[in-house]
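Possible regression after last week's pipeline update?

I re-ran a chain I had predicted before the update to compare outputs. Posting the input and the new output here so someone can diff against the archived version. Not blocking, just want to make sure nothing changed silently.
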Amino acid sequence: MKNKKEYPYLCESRLSYIYRCIKCGAFIKKGMHVCYRCEHVFSKEDVDIMIKQYRENYKKNCHHKLYFVVFITTIICALLF
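New output (post-update):
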């Protein structure tokens, strides 16, 4: 597979970059087989490790969604009352 030179900070949809390269730490777009920064080719084990790290990070950062919902609810209540 030919390496595509895509940079996550220039991409309109940053949400698609949810994984990190285990070699250099760059954000990797879902489905890419080669890191755009260090050109590391991901093996099956690398992919399993990246998915595991993503799930652990997702569980740790879930509270941000709760804060957002509470903030929006507070704003709506303040405007209505």
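Follow-up from reviewer: compared with the archived run. The beta strands are 17-20, 27-29. Marking as no regression found.
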